[in-house]
Specification:
The complex is a heterodimer of chains A (65) and B (176). With 65 residues, chain A is an all-alpha fold. Helices cover 66% and strands 0% of the residues of chain A. The longest helix of chain A has 26 residues, at 39-64. Chain B is mainly alpha-helical and 176 residues long. In chain B, helix 2 (19-38) runs antiparallel to helix 3 (41-57), helix 3 (41-57) packs across helix 4 (70-92) and helix 6 (117-129) packs across helix 7 (131-142). Classes of the chains: A mainly alpha (65), B mainly alpha (176). Chain A binds chain B through residues 1-11, 14-15, 18-19, 21-23, 25-26, 29, 31, 33-37, and chain B through 11-14, 16-17, 19-20, 23, 27-28, 31-32, 35-36, 41, 45, 48-49, 52-53, 56-57, 59-63, 112-116, 118-119, 122, 137, 141-142, 169, 172, 176.
């Protein structure tokens, strides 16, 4: 008895309207925005942080000496 | 699931119009899921619309890694948007009485779908058990989702879900 689910009837007008809205949104969005970010981008971000940290360390060390 | 993977890869690689295929595939399921949660068709439609727009915008961050699926990712978005909607509604309707809201829900449900008295009783009972249990019931029984998919949406372990599910079914059997 509990598995007897209430079936809903989809409003076709709503579905079409949403499809149009979605279509317009898709057309506006540049394809590049959907590209997955690659691992090297993630790594380069970290290498950049590491490089900045290293520079700060060298400058701090130099001024100490 | 394999079809979704291929489609998503193609969308991510520039064939963005193919998102329409995913929309066609999941539109009814997501609308149904949201309707069972809020009993209000116009609200379910609004949240479903937002779900697809948000899913499209976030598609670049979606990874189809081992065990994960697009459908459970979509359900997670829908579920989170529903929670936001409930929060907003609570804030805006502080002066409304709970009975009034419940009456409106019942009315909308009667007008929108043909459901039996027993199903209505089940839904009313599920409301008393809390939103998590209700969601679990909807996903497992009425949406035929796999255990793996539910694990992904709820972020719960397989053992915890199994326990929760058997307790829930036990309660429902005792009650009905």
């Amino acid at each position: 008895m509990i598995s007897a689910k209430p079936e809903i009837v989809i409003n076709q007008q709503w579905k079409e309207q949403l499809q149009e809205k979605l279509g317009a949104h898709i057309a506006q969005t540049p394809a590049i925005a959907l590209r997955p970010s690659r691992a090297f981008r993630f790594l380069s971000k970290w290498s950049l942080s590491f490089a900045s940290f290293f520079i700060v360390l060298v400058v701090a060390g130099a001024s100490y000496l | 699931m394999e079809d979704d993977k291929i489609l998503i890869e193609r969308i991510q690689n520039g064939e963005k119009e193919l998102f329409g295929v995913l929309y066609e595939k999941y539109c009814h399921k997501i609308l149904q899921f949201l309707f069972y949660k809020c009993y209000n068709m116009s609200e379910a439609e609004d949240i479903a619309g937002e779900t697809f727009l948000k899913a499209f915008d976030a598609l670049g961050s979606f990874r189809m890694v081992h065990g994960s699926s697009f459908s459970s990712w979509l359900y997670t978005i829908a579920s989170n948007l529903f929670l936001d909607y409930v929060k907003k509604k609570k804030e805006s309707s502080l002066d409304e009485t709970a009975e009034l809201i419940a009456d409106e829900k019942q009315k909308d449900m009667i007008e929108t779908v043909q459901i039996s008295e027993q199903t209505r009783e089940i839904l009313t009972y599920l409301d008393t058990l809390g939103s998590e249990k209700k969601e679990l019931f909807i996903m497992r029984i009425w949406q035929d989702m796999s255990r793996e998919e539910i694990e992904e949406v709820t972020k719960k372990s397989s053992a915890a879900l199994r326990k929760e599910y058997s307790r829930l079914i036990q309660k429902l059997i005792e009650k009905f």
